[in-house]
Batch of 4 targets.
Target 1
Amino acid sequence: MKRSLLFSASAATALIAVPLLNQPANMSAEASPINGSEKPVTPSPYPERPLFGDTHLHTTNSFDAFGAGNRLSPNEALRFARGEEIISSSGIQAKLSRPLDFLVIADHSDAIGVTTDLYNTAEADLNDPVLKRWRNLMHGDRNQAYLVTREIIAAFQSGKIPQELIRPDRVTAMTRRIWDAQIDSVERYNEPGKFTALHGFEFSLSIKGNSLHRNVILRDGADKARSVLPFPSQGTNGPEPLWDYMEAYERASGGKMLAIPHNPNLSNGIFFALTGQDGGPMTAEQARRRAAFEPVIEVTQIKGDSESHSLLSRNDEFADYGDAGWENGNAPLSQLKKPEMFGGEYAREALKRGLLIEQRTGVNPYAFGMIGSTDSHTGLSTADENNFFGKFSNDEPGAGRMNTVVNPGIAESRIGYHYLAGGLAAVWATANTREAIFDALLRREVYATTGPRMSVRMFAGWSFSSSLFTGDWVKATYSKGVPMGGNLSAGKGTPSFVVQALKDPIGANLDRIQIVKGWVDAKGLAQEKIYDVVWSAPKKRKIAKGRLTPVGDTVDLATASYSNSIGAPELRTVWRDPDFTKGQKAFYYARVLEIPTPRWTAYDAVRFKAKPSAGAKLKDQERAYTSPIWVG
């Protein structure tokens, strides 16, 4: 059976007629607030199913989102994530095929609401010519609004923002007002057991355009969230002040916070440094603080994939996923990338660097789990290829969006087709509540997907055998091993890894499961190896010269469709490392690949009869990455 576009006829019609950016969206259709009386939710003994959500969504309160035309408030964003149909900022009907289980609205803590304030200021009341120009451009058409957004982002990243826009007293007052209103929205739509809304914000630190961004999430409710304001990045030159803020919050309120780094691929090598902030060797205390406050990273999202890179993993045929365009330089493309920078930008290399630092200090600063999210600035958390609403409201569905210039740079530019459709955070929580989701993130029992909702489990132990998959095998693995994100202490023999993946119920079949291993050898050099451990059609497909026979390709670009006539709906195995060395510290994580499917660019080409640029990728193999398990 062919899988193609899932839009209804009415929605497809709506997609063709896109109004101007400043046409008012339907802002009045508010659903009834969720009942504030919360019934207790009884957690399960162990996680029974993954919860899928987004820890990185921007609404009209983010300065760049508003500047590019987003008029959707946290209320609309939460309603959409819960499964309601809404009208996007550009006037398009928008609805998820399935609701999310949880959402974090992560608006920028810096200059929160300032572009809204600038937009609503009369031109005659502005003295600064830059602010006057920006204000007028925001009142122009969607292209002018997008232009000013890029300029404002670049000004923030380079430290050249007009001071009147970020005057401390003005910003503090706006932040208090907007944060309190956001807290009210999050509380209104939080429904434990059904849908979880968590409090959070984005700390958007950039050093000369190099991204060191983090999303901060609270475990707590409104009372503790109101005790603080979102912490701004301006004036800081590293994450340490953020950790101080988080530490002070926990000490004063008794609550908990964690930070999720994102887009290390746009840091030009400084995100996963081997050194401390002062340029000297990272100390044990610095490593401890980073590991404590940042237990997971966002490894895939709209602005590229940060799992691996072919320059670092030359023997990995799948290492280039989502790298095109984003590998050229930092976020504003003000500085191009040099080969020596890549090692500090990608998760797999960072995991290896963590082992190196641990050998020297006794603490691993990069012992992180992995999730995905969107980083959508439209207020719409969409990660499906056939329902992609773009990065900004200017990028919402339309005939030309895949070929537009996103970032003009020094020597290279990013084009619309370089965007990914986004990612999702998959969390093995014992209940759909703030506490259970936060605790799962903290213990790293989470995984990333590039959008599909495949179910992936991974465990490690010393006594698992191929006969495991009888009876309640999940209960057995929890009692006799550790799940993804865990540490397997020393034992006898060779560790065995249990991996299982189930396809997205309405998505593509699976190609294979791989296990990625990293370790430090006897010479003190970091190494990696990738093992194909189970795959579809095993009687037909074999490993030859170190490569597994490809799964095949059923994608029909003329109709933006594919067939599940290849691949498998489920893959599982118990695998032992044939190269295990006792006493050698190593990490292992699973990568699950789907069969090839159309990208959003292919759906756009069919839907709008648009001709893609020669460099546009029209199909790919979407995937999931589990958090690692550390052995030794």
Target 2
Amino acid sequence: MSLELDTLCIDTIRMLSADGVEKARSGHPGLPMGAAAMAYVLWTRFMRYNPEDPAWADRDRFVLSAGHGSMLIYSLLHLTGYHLTLDDLKQFRQWESRTPGHPEYGQTPGVETTTGPLGQGFANAVGMAMAERYMAAHFNRPGFDIVDHHTYAIVSDGDLMEGISHEAASLAGHLGLGKLIFLYDDNHISIEGSTDITFTEDRAARFRAYAWHVQEVFDGNDIGAIEEALRAARAETARPSLIAVRTHIGFGSPGKQDSPSAHGEPLGAEELARTKANLGWPAEPAFLIPAEALKRFREAGRQAASAQDVWKARFADYTAAHPDLADEWRLWMNGELPAGWDEALPEFEADEKGPATRAVSGTVLNALAGKCGNLFGGSADLAPSNKTLIKGEEDFEGPAFTGRNIRFGVREHAMGGVLNGMALHGGIRPYGGTFLIFSDYMRPAIRLAALMQLRVIYVFTHDSIGLGEDGPTHQPIEQLAALRAIPGLTLIRPADANETREAWRTAVAIPEGPVALALTRQGLPTLDRTVLPPAEMLARGAYTLWQSPGEKPEILLIGTGSEVQIALEAAGKLADEGHCVRVVSMPSWELFERQPADYRSQVIPEDVTRRIAVEAGSPMGWHRYVGVSGAVIGIERFGASAPYRILYEKFGLTAAAVLEKAHDLLRK
């Protein structure tokens, strides 16, 4: 391969990227222009992928964590032969384009994850590498490495500044993820100027302290040095690798190279012309792809794809030698559940005292784990409280990586991003636990899981002031409302043990999108399902739990989680007074909204306008169900430190308070 051809290919990436941003009059040309050489070496000499089969299971994964430089990956995908046309590149950042401003999973073939919020792709890549190691440990057999791929990423100064990357890097180093390789675009520039104004620590030393294998390439255009560093990184199997490559943002632009303006704005027509002249590139036409460069990229794509043919032959032999494992592998990768996956789920007898739903969750999780070997997760240093340990399983640790219990440590934000990476990798059904209050630390990753419709399960315990003495710092108030505000996230707050069982059944079986379980610290009565509707009704989001005699209810009491028992108690007293009252258990707004309109109107009749919702959290959003004539009994201040029964009384979350409000409505 001649240096002249290499340079032509690298400049092709640069100019496609610059032309795309210029045509859109919006975007970030600087990163693609500066990082083009390292991306070229990686995509043409190392990565295994198949443009004709972007979802090939044993492909190498590539994450552009610095998603603002999206024209870099779009150019690479088009040049190497993915079904992304030149016209698609010309529609960069336009309505319904396949080349959105930041890479979006599911919208562009070959894009492995949605990136842009800095640091998220970094953590996603760690999760992908963890999933690869667990699946390799579970499925590979001597002579049959059917799971054997690397995870690569290009990360930026901004990624390394964000706190999530610190958390994820620490975890990756501890685990020794040797098949994780990051190219660091060390261009020294951020939006506000030189990184010297804010980012001056020794990044290489920092990653060495994280137990990473660290190399430095001092010239971002030295493709020989980049290739040598990548080979050394692949040879290092016990540690993740960071290759710090000193690049120049907007490389080749006479007026904007090494300047902040190259980061987030087009070069401008005049400067683009000067850049092309400086690089010896024809001024016209825009989006030029020299034939020699295209031939080189397409050859690289075909060569990378040949690895899939080798893998297919290996998998055929594997199937003959280990048919049961091969069937299980297909099941996992297709996102399917094994026969009888929910047969071992427990039934809970009526019990006035009853267990906390967090405790029940642990029991149900273990019942499911016995059938679903790809349930894989853990907690952010709260497993004893979250009840997220799978009994009889080892911890997920190197070098074996056979265990299913992940010790995420006190790293909630990274945990969220890592869970997303596991789900994106495929084959894994990831879950992660923490207290509901700390969902705030995870919110950016939860939002991206919802945006990508990833099947991630969050186990959020200690879901209200019911956690008691820990006080307002740990008592969630606005978190339920905040989670419900995320489009595509299903929140389930079960009322008792059997609803908790059904919450897990729903979370595992749901076809797409993340699910958050909100679970209590305190014990709750286990309702008597011999006289009440079956807990399986949870799958409908809301259902009539109890109604006193009468054809039409005068008033509805709607509750979730621990407050359903309060609604039932108040309803009994109203019934004793001669009122017809209905209690609705509403564990999930999202599931309820997916039901047909006639079912929703059966549960909450439009002509019954006296309605009270009761929930130990912010009332925000509840008026969509109680209407302008209804009332919400919730909490609109921070909590306090005291035993939980006292807190419920002091905050007015009692049957007496519900009864008083019901009398007010009935008088109207």
Target 3
Amino acid sequence: MTPRDPIAQLPTHEVLNTPPHMGDQDLWAGDRALRHWAAQSGAAAHMGHMAEAGQAFGRDETFEKAAQANRYDPELRAFDRYGMRLNAVEFHPAYHDLMALAVTSMAHNFAWHHQGDAGHVGQSLLTYMFAQPEGGVLCPMAMTYSVPPSLRFTPALEAEWMPRILSTDYDRRDIPAPEKSGALMGMFMTEKQGGSDVRANSTMARPEGAATGNGAAYLLTGHKFFCSAPMCDAFLVLANTEGCGLSCFLVPRWRPDGTRNALYLQRLKDKLGNRSNASSEMEFLDTYGTMVGDEGRGVRTIIEMVNGNRLFCAMGSAGIMRQALVQALHHCAHRSAFQKRLIAQPLMQNVLADMAIEVEGALALGLRVAQAMDNAMSDPAEAALARIGTAVAKYWNCKRCPVLVAEALECHGGPGYIEESIMPRLYREAPLNSIWEGSGNVMGLDVLRAMAREPEGIAACLAEVELARGLHPQLDRALEELKDELGDIAGLEGRMRSVTELLALCLQGALLLRFGDSAVAEAFCASRLGARYRGAFGTLPKGCDLEAIIARAMPG
């Protein structure tokens, strides 16, 4: 822990002009924009839970445990001392403390405890807040949150596993799931030869007995190249069945007879960031699994889980950006240069306000998609918006995150570049969500496919932007440009990144204009939708109310 009373008077000099230790943060009460957009998104009934979570997630102790969990990497224990196969991973105690905090706060299942009552919005609020101290723990939280829609394809599995998923007990024991007080779930798709092209998978599945198809037992043989959170209790896995192509299987860590399943961990990945979260390579050899959904429809089955993970990525990136901004604001509010606080310097004000606009736009977009997911069961237009909006928000929030974190790090200068600061960890975490659950190209192509297969999705997005027509000339111009881009089908595939970007910016601008703070909305449209915008921070045009924007973003 950081000393509460460090010594400033050193033998050779006195330590001056350095920011004080930040201490506890209240990630809920101290974030005006978060509370505003939570209420706007229909989560008024969840304010009490979010207030408690925001205090717990933001404690100095939580941030310190996150630092420890990332400093002391997980270790593979493939065998015990007698040579018996364990296929287990050991973690620093701080990791387990963080996992317990996340699970008891419902960071993995809030949506399913509050179906029909802004559950996905509440889930996204928890993601946004927990991502600020620690991203690695969110991986098993994201996958567990995302799996229920896929389980619905096989009611017997849903009935067996949903009570375990709905538990708020963190049970770290490596024992059969029926003996545990709660369970977490993961997803393994990627193979060496395929990467994002999951249809290139080579893992094969054959029936264990006479029964075949949905709900039947199979034995899987093959490999998976990127298996994160391998200590979860069960995993959704893709494998080929003879003559039918890819199918989806639920693969538990333990077989129904109480013996260890054949999940052979080969090694742990030495990753750039997200180091608290174990990511492994795994081989299957007659590994027990139960088919989920119809045979040969594995991608269709597992994509329901992927979509939830993508929203998690979008909101996690927004949370990382928020914490990077908070760190920059704190530093600049206490550091002076040229006889002025940095936060009073005009160009630094432009940088900080510009980052604040980016964070609020990302938050508004992610929560609007979550709100659409909540409304999807009763409103086809909202369901269409949720399907395409997930890819759009995932693409844009995750793309902007590394750029913003780099700018926030630059606000600190040298002190932000040393490991005692949180900034290097945020910087290493920042690119992750853009890579996991579909890279930028995959997201752009998903939007393109949705345009062809579900044109109502694009129609829903355009209708959402149309609601803000007339509120700002730059948005009106951008909307017409977007329509022109969508109508020009020649070479559209090669332009899908720019089309997805423009779609995201139009949605963000419309939301900010209709429901947001006027100073933030004006600056967003004047910059992001203006003709001269190039994406660098600190380039807001004249006339923007920088001080008002910064005041709104300052942690309380």
Target 4
Amino acid sequence: MGALPSRSVCPHDCASVCPVELELTEDGKLARLRGSRVNSYTEGVICAKVARYDQRLHHPERLMEPLLRVGPKGSGQFRPISWDEALDRTAEGLRAAAAQWGAEAVWPYYYAGTMGLVQRDGINRLRHVLGYSQTEETICIGFSDPGWKAGVGGKRGVDAREMVQSDLVIFWGCNAVHTQVQLMNWATKARRMRGAPLVVVDPYRNATAEKADIHLMPRPGTDGALACAVMHVMFAEGLADRAYMAAHTDDPRALEAHLESRTPAWAAAITGLEAAEIIDFARLYGRTKRSYLRLGYGFTRQRNGSAAMHAVSCLPAVSGAWAHPGGGALYSGSGLFPLDTTLIEGKDVADPTVRKINQISFGRALTGDSEALAGGPPVKALLIQNTNPMVVCPETDRVRAGMAREDLFTVVHEQFMTETAAMADIVLPATMFLEHDDIYKAGGHTYLQVAKAVMPAPGQCRSNHAVICALAERLGARHPGFSLSAWALIEATLAASKLPPAGEILESGGLDGVPADFNDAHFLNGFPNASGRFRFRAEWEGPMAGQMPALPDHLALIEEADARYPFRLVAAPARNFLNSTFSETPGSIGAEGRPQVLIRPDEAAALGILDGALVHLTSRRGEIAIHARLFEGLPKGVVVVESLWPNAAFPGGKGINTLTGADPGPPLGGGAFHDNAVAIRPHDHGKLC
């Protein structure tokens, strides 16, 4: 049979939000998926996990009908029910919880299983209309956003395609091979066209570091110290662009004075790098004006992550790289399109007095922690879309205990029987991105995109938007957004945002938002903040802002190793999973093998640990069993687990987030997933944890 070509947008939790081309067989099956060859950012490139999307779309274990729990929570015992019964039971469960405990006892919980604004954020419309508990969205950007905004302001930077004009490319805390493969395409072009070396700053020799010309391997949580020492050298050796700073920054004199004591020797003691490494990098960076700095999320997922992001983002302001083609920095470009999502999210009826629960405090909130509950009632009902908290939230033991409560009514709208879905009272089958309409912004590139369904939903699967609207009808929730189709919502949102109509954007393959004027694109006409200048003096906001440094610095807030927990753990992203997505596909499982902890051979030998042996990792939160893999590319005292594997994939059934903490970090309460002190010991051949 011949293949029928079409196109769409990859929706998954990734900065790329790739435009994709696909081929469907005549009977409607996905035959092939690849990156768009006409989009000037993607250029046909797609990650391997998405290239295998047929394995997800047509997976034999995909949920196809609504289910009602008939056994204990977590047992996986369900029976099929009709959609009407499922929606009626869901509405009654939410209504009963609100009637007895108040509307705040209902917590709609979601995140970025899709980056589509209609299918992801529409749950907020139901939340706001009915007064359900709100959510502090801290699980991903709770540190990185305030760190970037403290200096630059808005969430935009230099277009990644400008790397072809760069003489130096730096990936800082960004394992692009695993998480944003298009960046490697552009870095390779810079190397080929201009001889630009690639520098990777990351605490272990991952797949991106393997391809680097220079790899700086600081201890996790010490990036701010490294950045400060680099700026110290630039000031001391005349590599700082004083004319640029005088015209475009707030207080370079105070910064220089502050950094006088932040020497390479000072930073070496903190980071574990050699002072000479720091000096060489500072000279390379300071002398190369066309230097492109791509900042990732990884190095910010520490308790001092916001301070680290601010410190690193200061580098192109000191060097003056912003003023040059191919120079400057990018953290996220999602601010290029300030969409008016009032209709999608029901912002016009949001009540700011409704309590907000921190997203990372999921387990604590469900187990009755008064601080996590923010002064409100216990959580008595959950409506979950687009996330898998049993795997992705910190403090898994608490999450499991909370979700096992028999007095907690839980509805999960999902594509597979995840560990979260298995804890639900009602499970609803969800569509995938090729089966519904949506609109997408991106962090890694400059395009606003829309996509229409290219195939019908299988079985009884329904979109998030359809489910939210059906529940609104049963619950008596009134808002114009509930009466519109997904496509009509997209059209109305674009009109309110004074942007071209959806059909035009769809036909053109996306709306490119890169500023036409170089001076606008590089902030030479002003940075997107109230002062118009890059702010070395950070203006921190949030409940924990008082803990933040006024000028860029190393903030000593990380969970330091000690005698009891002598290692620092980084819970890094795996190449073939995206959070917990793709952990069900055979291709991704086969490529990853099994959960492993990377440990230096000398440190393993000292502990009597052999390659491939079963070991135990313990933190202040819990303990897991995992197999060891001896690995040279680590600083002393650091171990790495590339995950997120399901809990069930680990011996003993406890996954990596059993070890991670939910203590909120300043200034806004972000989640410190890469900031954990742990102990490691050989398996004693007794009972698994």
